[in-house]
Design goal:
Layout (H helix, E strand, L loop, with lengths): L2 H10 L1 H9 L6 E2 H8 L3 H13 L3 E6 L2 E6 L2 H14 L12 H5 L1 E3 L2 E3 H13 L12 H10 L3 H5 L7 E4 L6 E4 H14 L2 E3 L5 E3 L1 H11 L11
Antiparallel strand pairs: 1-3, 2-3, 4-5, 6-7, 8-9
Helix pairs in contact: 2-3, 3-4
Length: 227
């Protein structure tokens, strides 16, 4: 089965959907790890992973005697994030049932998502570092990202779009995707403003809270997940 219906069919199976969501943080896992997370046998997991590979939703890399599975690329992650928005359409006006620690800050494949990701994009737009219409990087934005330590010439040479809006499934508003979104998260991690926890979860550090407020006026609703 090919085309949209084929991709939808691959994602629709609960076991495969669980595996894909586990890979949404950008990490790579073995078939055994994915099998345990999905609560299925290793043989069942292997069968599902073979189908996902055939549909180009996951890819595998060998390291020694282990084989690690990861999402095929950012486009797969973008599609999954959008589908999670549809999954969370509960009662209008209610906060989606998302764990608080993931709602504040998490990885969406290789870029920043959650409340912090949405607030950062808002701030970049308010300061005219990105244009409202198409998220085009402005001259002021180029200066800010360069001062932050992002290598913009290296990003513009890539085939991947520099910027793109990615609809956040917990905040229901866009955060910044594309190669610039990925570079921004990498730099925030390098500066120690955010830190990895486990899985997709990220935490904002205390120095990060101060720096983000000073640089962009970003203030989180909850700071108990910062340390």
């Amino acid at each position: 089965m090919t085309g949209l219906s084929g991709v939808a069919s691959l994602m629709a199976d609960p076991t495969r959907a669980h595996m894909l969501t586990m890979l949404l943080g950008g990490q790579a896992f073995t078939a055994g790890e994915l099998a345990r997370a999905a609560n299925v046998s290793p043989q069942t997991a292997s069968n599902h992973l073979a189908q996902l590979r055939a549909g180009q939703l996951v890819e595998v890399a060998a390291q020694g005697r282990y084989r690690y599975y990861r999402l095929y690329g950012s486009e797969v992650a973008h599609a999954l994030e959008a589908l999670l928005v549809l999954e969370r359409r509960d009662v209008p006006g209610l906060v989606p049932p998302v764990p608080a620690e993931l709602r504040v800050a998490r990885r969406c494949y290789d870029h920043l998502a959650g409340e912090l990701g949405v607030l950062l994009l808002d701030a970049l737009l308010e300061r005219d570092y990105l244009t409202d219409a198409d998220l085009k990087l402005t001259s002021a934005g180029e200066a800010w990202f360069t001062n932050l330590g992002v290598d913009l010439p290296a990003l513009t040479s890539k085939r991947r779009p520099l910027t793109r809006p990615c609809l956040d499934w917990s905040e229901r508003r866009p955060h910044l995707g594309g190669s610039l979104g990925a570079a921004l998260l990498a730099q925030l991690l390098s500066l120690g403003w955010v830190a990895r926890v486990e899985g997709r979860q990220l935490r904002v550090t205390v120095p990060g809270l101060t720096a983000l407020e000073q640089e962009l006026g970003v203030v989180l609703r909850e700071t108990k997940w910062a340390s």
